[in-house]
Design a protein that fits this description.
This protein has nine helices and nine strands. The protein has about 280 residues and is of the alpha/beta class. Helix 6 packs across helix 7. The chain binds adenosine monophosphate.
Length: about 280
């Protein structure tokens, strides 16, 4: 596995791939790798001869009161995990390399970035779309792999690739969970033992929502009530949103029709957790 820290070297490496006729698969991450990230890498490994992973804790996607400085950065173990997973190239730039002093460009996806995570974290998606655009422009992969875990992010990235005619296919990978349903996340390591138990209630509530829809319920207020009932049992949990939305536009619905996504965000102490489930109404 090669480790590259400079954009110049990445560009040189990329030029060398031009005539090789190999498929390039790309997995952008912020590190602190877990089974969720590794599942994306395995998917890329299956489809592509050349697998690139980036690890970059992107300051632009953190709000001023968020956890940028304490975000975990286990550099050596991340490198070892990438090596074990058969990654060909690890791109691990520094902040100064990626955003030099005079950096002043940003990329915005307007509508899809507005609601839900966009409302809770006003500068977040602009940070994500700027970093992803910059990475895709350098790596120019055939396919890039994103987790359904961050569903709104996935849609925003798809939109950006479509709008800017970037020649990369965005592949959605399923959410990897603990046995009790909690979606894996680099932030789970901040949870205390009692918070960890409460954290699982988010996926339990979303599953309840899916169940209610599968039983034929179409009224969103009733579906939301069925989910809220589960979360009300957990006193330490603050619900930020629990929404039933169109799976493509993320607009909130009052009646369920076709494919919908249930989106949830919780706060436990000062830790934010998000999760989602897709479900198709049978009617
Ligand atoms: P992050 O390092 O949090 O920026 O995540 C990098 C990529 O891994 C994103 O595409 C995430 O959606 C994906 N990811 C994070 N957690 C999971 C998970 N539990 N299952 C599947 N993909 C995940």
């Amino acid at each position: 596995m090669r480790i590259i820290r400079s954009i110049r070297w990445l560009q040189t490496w990329r030029r060398q791939q031009n005539n090789k006729n190999v498929r390039i698969g790309f997995v952008p991450t912020m590190g602190a790798l877990h089974e969720g990230h590794l599942s994306l890498i395995r998917q890329a490994r299956k489809h592509c001869q050349n697998v690139i992973v980036s690890i970059f804790v992107n300051p632009l996607q953190f709000g001023p009161a968020e956890d940028l400085s304490r975000y975990p950065r286990p550099v050596k173990s991340d490198e070892a995990l990438c090596r074990e997973a058969g990654v060909d190239l690890l791109f691990r730039p520094s902040g100064a390399e990626f955003y030099p002093k005079n950096f002043q460009t940003s990329v915005t996806v307007n509508q899809l970035s507005q609601r839900w995570e966009g409302e809770a974290r006003p500068t977040h998606f602009e940070g994500v779309t700027t970093v992803v655009t910059k990475l895709l422009c350098q790596v120019r992969p055939n396919q890039a792999y994103f987790g359904q875990k961050d569903y709104q992010q996935l849609l925003v990235v798809k939109q950006l690739v479509q709008d800017l005619n970037i020649d990369t296919r965005i592949v959605r990978c399923p959410t990897i969970r603990e046995t009790d349903g909690l979606a894996l996340s680099s932030r789970n390591r901040y949870l205390s033992e009692s918070q960890r138990t409460q954290a699982a209630s988010l996926s339990t509530a979303l599953k309840q929502g899916v169940q209610t829809i599968k039983q034929g319920e179409t009224h969103v207020r009733i579906i939301q009530n069925s989910m809220q009932k589960i979360l009300r049992k957990n006193s330490g949990v603050k619900v930020e949103y629990l929404a039933v939305c169109d799976a493509e536009t993320l607009e909130p619905l009052t009646m369920v029709k076709g494919q919908v996504v249930l989106l949830g965000a919780l706060q436990i102490g000062n830790i934010r957790l998000i999760d989602n489930l897709l479900v198709r109404h049978a009617g």
